[in-house]
Amino acid sequence: MIFLIIIKRKFFYILVFLLAALTVIVAINSSRRLLERFFPIKYNKYVDKYSMKYGVDPFLVYAMIKAESGFDSDAVSHKKAIGLMQIIEKTGFWAAEEIGMQGFSVEELYNPEVNIHIGCWYLDNLMKEFNGNLDLVIAAYNGGSGNVKKWINNKQIDENNVLIDNIPFGETKRYVKRVKLYTKIYKKLYGRDTAKPLESRIYRFFVPHFGSNLTGSSY
Prior knowledge:
About 65% of the residues lie in helices and about 0% in strands. By secondary structure, the protein is an all-alpha fold. It folds into two domains: about 1-35 and about 195-210; about 40-195, Lysozyme (Orthogonal Bundle). The longest helix has about 35 residues, at about 1-40. The protein is globular and about 40 Å long.
């Protein structure tokens, strides 16, 4: 009789934990879907193609598109930067010449593929210019590479230990922080670390408490 009571209590606690786990799964999945609405994967065909071509982190590209235009291919800033990655006319013509785009015109910056192609090329160019220092690259994309070099030469920022709060331009300082945060979010939502489902992590929590026969499967 006592043995049956113990068994019933054990399965009651298992049921309680499973219901709690299910509640957590539903809540996290709902939060994830909400985040995915605010941080979508769009134009992935072009992002994948040109980030791979130029060796640029695709999540950084998505983060910059999110920060620059909110995925609006028709976006134009007060500084006349155009399209998804907000390319200015001067950079567009320079990149087009270097890439070998024939008959390039400013209107083509509204074309998502052209804009992403030039944006990825420009990011690669900045990566080489600043030896892969991501903080400097992001700052240069927003504030201009000439300004970043001036800050380094004037000892306003240390290229070997960039403190974002020391960036002189307030807009650029906020931009660097925003893009780095967006990159982390994109990696968290869509990176390989998310491939293992939450259910498997919950399972590993239950096994030490209730034994490996809980579901009859293993991870």
